[in-house]
Amino acid sequence: MIRTVEWTDVGVVMLDQRLLPSLETYVTCKDHREVAEAIRSMVIRGAPAIGVAAAMGVALGVRNSRAGDVSELDAEFGRICDVLSGTRPTAVNLFWAVERMRRTYQRMRFQGVEAIRAALILEAQQMHAEDIDANRRMGRFGQELVPHRARILTHCNAGALATAGYGTALGVIRAAVEAGKAVEVFADETRPFLQGARLTAWELEKDNIPVTVITDGMAGHFMRLGRIDCVIVGADRIAANGDVANKIGTYSVAVLARENSIPFFVAAPVSTLDLAVPDGSLIPIEERDPEEVRRVGGVLITSASTRVANPAFDVTPSGYVSAIITDRGVARPPYAESLRRLAA
Ligand code: MRU
Questions:
Q1: How far is the CA of 170 from the centre of ligand 1 (A)?
Q2: Is 236 a catalytic residue?
Q3: pLDDT tens across 219-228, in order?
Q4: pLDDT of 333 over the 90 cut
Q5: Rounded to whole angstroms, what are the CA distances from 317 to 240, 254, 258, 268, 275?
Q6: CB environment 200-230: b (16+ within 10 A), e (fewer)
Q7: Does 232 contact ligand 1 (Cβ within 6 A)?
Q8: What pLDDT, on the 0 to 100 scale, is given for residue 78?
Q9: Looking at the DSSP assignment, which residues form a beta bridge with residue 331?
Q10: Which of 25, 26, 61, 170 is deepest in the core (most CB within 10 A)?
Q11: What is the DSSP letter of 26?
């Protein structure tokens, strides 16, 4: 299995996703600030992977702390958590993971600095293992929705690279293959970071799952020709009413799927649910560096001063979502009820 992120004695090791598929190199983050920078600069990306990396970053920060007693560590711990929480605003898994580390800290607080350190390292490793298990469960639930010989469109990368392993949307596809179904994947290129072209295609080729990369603008064409049977995407945050924040371009895909009567499925663990947010209009959307749009592969494609916009995510209203596949089962509309039941 692809090793996206790992805890080691030297630090948190991550496969550098900025350089794939040309180079398979690993970055070792030796303190929590380096982990934060790796998340911000997208060495690691994808909601569940960001969550696990942030948890490991918190553990690393506390491991490196020189605090002699718990009261000294208290203030430092808050700062470490803030540095990691401040990296990217949309994927709720990041805040979920840091919150879980805060709870572990509170639980261990009266046992002393050494016990806190050990517990936080264990918790982060546990979250890594749990994420892979959750993806496998999601795969088992989700593959039931995938017909034999399905031609599946996906957007961005919701694979092993976006998680601790196996993947969410790609986990469902992998599980369908493991169940003996012949499937074929169409991967949207996913401008501007090219997660589909660079990452999804790379992962699926490694697993010998047939994949065709198309540019984002081609999706409607293939749907109208009857060459797509279903869409499966991941999510960065799902509001209580089932609205889904995911990679920019997902909304267009969902609307096209509806227009062409194609089921549109979202695969995400319950850690991606944010039931405190009533609907998608309240989900913060990250705006990234305009240079990501102005350049392709480092080459300027606009004039250097051209004004561009770069929202990294969009929100798909729940009305376009046929089902939400989670690690606890498949939610169907009305989502306000089905998601609440799954999260309970
Ligand atoms: O900006 P990214 O690459 O972190 O965005 C990733 C996505 O939008 C994924 O589809 C989402 O995180 C689900 S990953 C299992």
A1: 12
A2: yes
A3: 999 999 999 9
A4: yes
A5: 11, 9, 12, 16, 15
A6: bbbbbeeeebebebbebeebbebbeeeebbb
A7: no
A8: 98
A9: 324
A10: 170
A11: E
